[in-house]
Design brief:
Layout lengths: L1 E9 L1 H13 L3 E8 L3 H17 L10 E5 L4 H7 L9 E5 L16 H13 L2 E4 L2 H16 L9 H7 L1 E3 L18 E6 L8 H13 L4 E6 L9 H8 L4 E5 L4 H10 L2 E3 L9 H8 L3 E5 L4 H4 L11 E2 L3 H16 L10 H6 L4 H25 L4
Parallel strand pairs: 1-2, 1-3, 3-4, 4-5, 5-6, 7-8, 7-10, 8-9, 10-11, 11-12
Helix pairs in contact: 1-14, 2-3, 5-6, 7-12
């Protein structure tokens, strides 16, 4: 099958998803991408840019079988603008994130036009894929509440129409670095996330203060993508933790990032917002012990309730995070972090490895195309 993939924001998880899938896929791929820059402008103009690009090509009606796009594309606009030969292609929209529940510091800052774009993209697609059930459900619930606030002509059936064609397909991951014998030393704690307020870095540093006050020895690495207006807490924490830091800031090379994962004893998340949790999955695959808040997509990803994985969660409070980190430091000093089989969680995360996931995605996009074709054939002519 021939896939036309459109990615307005070809960077980060969006790029990793397309590259990882297409590299192992049995299908033929054509990727049209734009650099990961100024995401708001990408959402505004990418439909026009891609349609114009395709109009300049000698596009045949049977050149592709299906369109795959991310939530950054205004799919409805694209379909209206694209050359006639492509308008009938079924489209699958993959939602890495959405602009209705994506965090903003103040709700007044949210541009609801981007949320409407997500809605119309989902309506225009033949199938809508979310990276987690948590993401799907939180988006559709928020969309329902949003539409009820419209002054009139409320399309209240839209969330259910989207849900009926929604499926969950997680992104794939791969870790090539291997964990060797542990180097001597105190508990090594890793925090890896975007340096933004929705990841609650303040909670992490407060939990480290609890360890420090209790006289617990530890080392820390704080890594992730930084922005011009990153929270001030990072700079003050860097000064405060100066004698305990192994790594700090953005790691340019993938090998550096994976080295941080395999050297960490414990991976900590304090996120108040997470649609999937790629870094957590990667850290677990690299052998780190996860300590995650019992919220967002994390219980789903770690199969909480179907596996005996409750020990890897805390209640979301700084106090319990600090307490559990102290317990892990004591367990490490006493012989080891893991109770029972230390590889059980890594094996569970194996379902997210690209070699396991790609055949599932390949089948899913074939099914989406077949379903769209049967629906079209069933529609009355004229």
């Amino acid at each position: 099958m021939r896939i036309l993939a459109l990615e307005p924001y070809y960077g980060g998880s969006h790029r990793a998803f397309l590259d990882g899938w297409s590299a192992l896929s049995r299908h033929q791929w054509t990727l049209l991408t734009l650099p990961a820059y100024k995401w708001k402008w990408r959402m505004r103009h990418s439909a026009v840019t891609f349609a114009d690009d395709l109009a300049c090509r000698a596009v045949a009606a049977n050149q592709w079988d299906v369109v795959l796009c991310s939530d950054m594309l205004n799919l409805a606009e694209f379909i209206a603008l694209v050359p006639r030969a492509l308008r009938g292609l079924p489209a699958v929209a993959y939602f890495h994130e959405n602009q209705l529940t994506y965090p903003v510091r103040f709700e007044s800052e949210r541009d609801y036009q981007f949320a409407i774009t997500n809605m119309t993209t989902a309506l225009a697609a033949k199938a809508v894929w979310f990276n987690s059930a948590f993401h799907r459900d939180s988006f559709l619930e928020a969309l329902s509440d949003f539409l009820k606030r419209m002054p009139n002509h409320q399309p209240l059936d839209v969330p259910e129409r989207i849900r009926e064609k929604s499926l969950v397909y997680p992104p794939g991951v791969e870790i090539s670095a291997k964990r060797g014998p542990r180097k001597p030393g105190p508990l090594r704690i890793l925090w890896a996330a975007r340096w933004e307020h929705d990841k609650r870095p303040e909670d992490f540093f407060e939990a480290l203060d609890i360890l420090d006050a209790a006289g617990v020895d530890f080392r820390v690495s704080v890594i992730g993508e930084q922005f011009r207006d990153s929270p001030d807490v990072f700079e003050s924490a860097r000064r405060h933790l100066a004698g305990r830091i192994d790594r700090w800031g953005w790691l340019q090379e993938r090998a550096e990032y994976e080295a941080a994962l395999v050297e960490a004893d414990v991976f900590v998340s304090t996120a108040a917002h997470e649609f999937f949790g790629i870094s957590a999955v990667e850290a677990i695959l690299a052998g780190a012990y996860p300590l995650l808040p019992k919220r967002l997509a994390y219980p789903e990803i770690l199969a909480l309730g179907t596996e005996s994985n409750a020990e890897f969660f805390y209640d979301g409070s700084v106090a319990e995070l600090g307490r559990k980190l102290g317990e892990l430091a004591a367990r490490l000093a006493g012989g080891g972090l893991w109770r029972g089989d230390p590889g059980r969680l890594s094996r569970l995360m194996g379902r997210f490895r690209w070699p396991s996931l790609v055949p599932i995605l390949d089948d899913a996009i074939e099914n989406a195309r077949g379903s769209a074709r049967r629906q079209s054939e069933a529609e009355p002519a004229g």
